[in-house]
Amino acid sequence: MSGGPGLESLVDQTISVITNDGRNIVGVLKGFDQATNIILDESHERVFSTKEGVQQLVLGLYIIRGDNISIVGELDADLDSSLDWSKMRAYPLKPVIH
Amino acid sequence: MSTGIFGCVQLFFSYFKELVGREVTVELKNDLAIRGTLHSVDQYLNIKLENTRVVDQDKYPHMLSVRNCFIRGSVVRYVQLPPEGVDVELLHDATRREARGG
């Protein structure tokens, strides 16, 4: 399907994925398919909490099933590095309730 | 009924295609609301937004460094449209036609 909101333009770019259980995984998009299953390389999870700043957990190469994906965001590298995530405090995102 | 659910999806797919370029707010099933310019939509009603910002950024700083995003159709709860983007008469006619089965 041409012109649709595919993920072609995001391949090899750093993306931020929000999953249905509210996790935020950042990594380089290596592949995807029709069902939004995605392959993420050099991925890490950003864990938000109100008690401390954002923690980064290294995950490595990840495949995420499309069913479990809410948002795929294109990470703006300059914007991202200008933010001090270690000082950011927030409640984790709520899980998706269908 | 020949078209069924598929016909309905087609109807809303066409409808959203008309709204490309407009400013919309997409509310997700995790209560997150994202505002941005509608870039594209596909047959699953997946949505791509540009120049996005989360409506309550203090509460949800998770996407502060995201300017363009892809939202999976399955997690969309509401799409808030600009009032001038809604042709109520056209939608009435189209949905009634669907309900009659073509």
TrEMBL record, chain A:
Gene Ontology BP, a term: mRNA splicing, via spliceosome
Protein's UniProt keywords contain Nucleus: yes
Molecular function per GO: mRNA binding
Subcellular location: Nucleus
Main subcellular location: nucleus
Source superkingdom: Eukaryota
Protein family (similarity comment): Belongs to the snRNP Sm proteins family.
Function: Plays role in pre-mRNA splicing as component of the U4/U6-U5 tri-snRNP complex that is involved in spliceosome assembly, and as component of the precatalytic spliceosome (spliceosome B complex). The heptameric LSM2-8 complex binds specifically to the 3'-terminal U-tract of U6 snRNA.
PANTHER family per UniProt: LSM1 (PTHR15588), U6 SNRNA-ASSOCIATED SM-LIKE PROTEIN LSM8 (PTHR15588:SF9)
Name of the molecule in the record: U6 snRNA-associated Sm-like protein LSm8
Protein species of origin: Rosa chinensis
Lineage: Eukaryota, Viridiplantae, Streptophyta, Embryophyta, Tracheophyta
Gene name of the encoded protein: LSM8
UniProtKB/TrEMBL annotation, chain B:
Example GO biological process: mRNA splicing, via spliceosome
Gene3D superfamilies with a match to the protein in the record: 2.30.30.100
SUPFAM superfamilies from the UniProt entry: Sm-like ribonucleoproteins (SSF50182)
Pfam families named in the record: LSM (PF01423)
Signal peptide: none
Intracellular or extracellular location(s): Nucleus
Keywords (A to Z) from UniProt: mRNA processing, mRNA splicing, Nucleus, Ribonucleoprotein, RNA-binding, Spliceosome
GO molecular function: RNA binding
Residue intervals of the Sm domain: 11-85
InterPro entries: LSM_dom_sf, Sm, Sm_dom_euk/arc, U6_snRNA_Lsm2
RNA-binding as UniProt keyword: yes
Major localization listed first in the record, in broad terms: nucleus
Annotated GO CC locations: catalytic step 2 spliceosome; Lsm1-7-Pat1 complex; P-body; precatalytic spliceosome; U4/U6 x U5 tri-snRNP complex; U6 snRNP
Function: Component of LSM protein complexes, which are involved in RNA processing.
Family stated for the protein in its record: Belongs to the snRNP Sm proteins family.
PANTHER family according to UniProt: SM-LIKE PROTEIN LSM2 (PTHR13829:SF5), SNRNP CORE PROTEIN FAMILY MEMBER (PTHR13829)
Protein name per UniProt: Sm-like protein LSM2
Organism: Rubus argutus (Southern blackberry)
